[in-house]
Amino acid sequence: MDSTTMNTVFSDKLVPVNSLESDDSSDPLDRASRTDRHVGRRIRERRIMMGLSQQQMADMIGVTYQQAHKYERGINRISAGRLFEISQVLGVPISFFFEGLAGQQEPEAPGLSPRQRMCLELARNFSQISDERHQEALSQLARALADQEG
After folding, report:
1. How far is CA 22 from the centre of its chain?
2. Which residues 6+ apart lie within 8 Å of 94 measured at CB?
3. What is the pLDDT of residue 112?
4. Is the distance from CB of 115 to CB of 107 less than 8 angstroms?
5. Do 86 and 78 contact (CB within 8 A), yes or no?
6. How far is CA 9 from the centre of its chain?
7. At what angle do helices 65-73 and 34-49 cross, to 10 degrees?
8. Are 26 and 90 in contact (CB under 8 A)?
9. In Å, what is the CA distance from 42 to each residue of 26, 29, 96?
10. How far is CA 150 from CA 38, 114, 144, 145, in A?
11. DSSP state of 10
């Protein structure tokens, strides 16, 4: 029996399973719900911020690179247990992945802009500098350059 012929009971009435999905399209990205895509984007943002590759994260949560990629794109849904594992690996509470979802009026553009990616990379690299004097020198340089531009 395929999913188009299966039914489920909700409030004492029969509802086709395929009507419970947010979208009914053959494109995998269209089938993913807005929530799945949002959670995937938040996972990707945090992974990049931590300086992890998709392969590294996949190894840490015990899935293939392809599966981690599908999670981040919102193509495959993430179980509660897997989301808990991901939150532990990325060092954030589960609620982190849902922040900003309720107030979102329309879906965000997929991926990060080049400027956002550069800012995340800058923050990640800055946090890896162990010498506080070097951090302060870099901070002063950034302030000086910003003042020169402004």
Report:
1. 19
2. 83, 84, 87
3. 67
4. no
5. yes
6. 32
7. 120
8. no
9. 25, 17, 8
10. 34, 21, 10, 9
11. E
**Contact predicate 121/51, CB 8 Å:** no
HSE (side-chain half, CA atoms, 13 Å) at 121? 8
For the chain, the farthest-separated pair of C-alpha atoms sits apart, in whole angstroms, at: 68
Q: Which residues of 117-140 are buried (b: 16+ CB within 10 A; e: fewer)?
A: eeebeeeeeeeeeeeeeeeeeeee
What is residue 110's predicted lDDT score, i.e. its pLDDT? 54
SS3 127: helix
Q: Average pLDDT across each block of 10 residues of the chain; the chain has 150 residues. List them in order.
A: 44 44 47 84 90 92 95 93 95 91 56 76 81 90 84
For residue 8, what is the enclosing H or E element?
strand 7-10
User: What is the full DSSP assignment across 64-93?
Assistant: -HHHHHHHHHTSS---HHHHHHHHHHHTS-
Assessment of whether the complete model's pTM goes beyond 0.85: no
What the block records as the tokens of 81 is 């247990």
